[in-house]
UniProtKB/TrEMBL annotation:
It comes from Pseudomonas kuykendallii. GO terms for molecular function: ATP binding; dephospho-CoA kinase activity. Pathway: Cofactor biosynthesis; coenzyme A biosynthesis; CoA from (R)-pantothenate: step 5/5. Belongs to the CoaE family. SUPFAM superfamilies: P-loop containing nucleoside triphosphate hydrolases (SSF52540). This is Dephospho-CoA kinase.
Length: 202
């Protein structure tokens, strides 16, 4: 029986990493889209060669690995180059995610992605869980965690999918505005519910 896929997302500072960790503790197979995005550009993978060919050697570090900062500054200023990069990477990241999730031994598996909705990765899932938190709490948590200023965090909040858009795609919403023991008990409650589902739908 192939596992069904739960998409897990949430804004910065919402607590989605804490939620993801607890699902893993409960034995659920999980892949982080950010990790998949890193794997596809590792040395020896075709994507890295294509990127170097397209942008030139300045996007590589001396050891042959991708210089993310250099690449970011190239695509940040140029929408056309960004689209080229996305059209190369998105399908590869999708394949990486799908093949990894297909190996799952748990009844369902989780795809964690901060950009689940924006990137279209929610199309790989049968159900979406959004971890949400009041904006003030998101700000406080992120400023504390990243030692960032309020302006920096607000800019990231602006750039991420708006809360309404995320919630519109959600099958389940976990409002994370209490303490960790409470959060864990909520994850366990959802986990037991998910175990009763076939293909992600009741």
């Amino acid at each position: 029986m192939k596992p069904w896929i739960l998409g897990l997302t949430g804004g910065i500072g919402s607590g989605k990493s804490a939620v993801a960790e607890h699902f893993v503790d409960l034995g659920v197979h999980l892949i982080d889209a950010d990790h998949a995005a890193r794997w596809v550009v590792e040395p020896g993978r075709p994507a890295l060669a294509r990127i170097a060919e397209h942008f030139g050697p300045t996007v590589l570090q001396a050891d042959g690995t991708l210089d993310r900062g250099a690449l970011r500054s190239r695509v940040f200023q140029d929408a056309e180059q960004r689209r080229w990069l996305e059209s190369l990477l998105h399908p590869l990241i999708g394949e990486e995610i799908v093949s990894y999730l297909a190996q799952a031994k748990s009844p369902y598996a989780i795809l964690v992605s901060p950009l689940l909705i924006e990137s279209g990765q929610h199309r790989l899932t049968q159900r979406v869980l959004v971890v949400d938190a009041p904006e003030q709490l998101q700000l406080q948590r992120t400023m504390r965690r990243d030692k960032a200023s309020e302006e920096q965090v607000r800019a990231i909040l602006q750039a991420q999918a708006h809360r309404e858009e995320r919630l519109r795609h959600a099958d389940d919403v976990l409002i994370n505005d209490r303490d960790l023991p409470w959060l864990r008990s909520e994850v366990e409650r959802l986990h037991h519910f998910y175990l009763t589902l076939r293909g992600g739908q009741p």
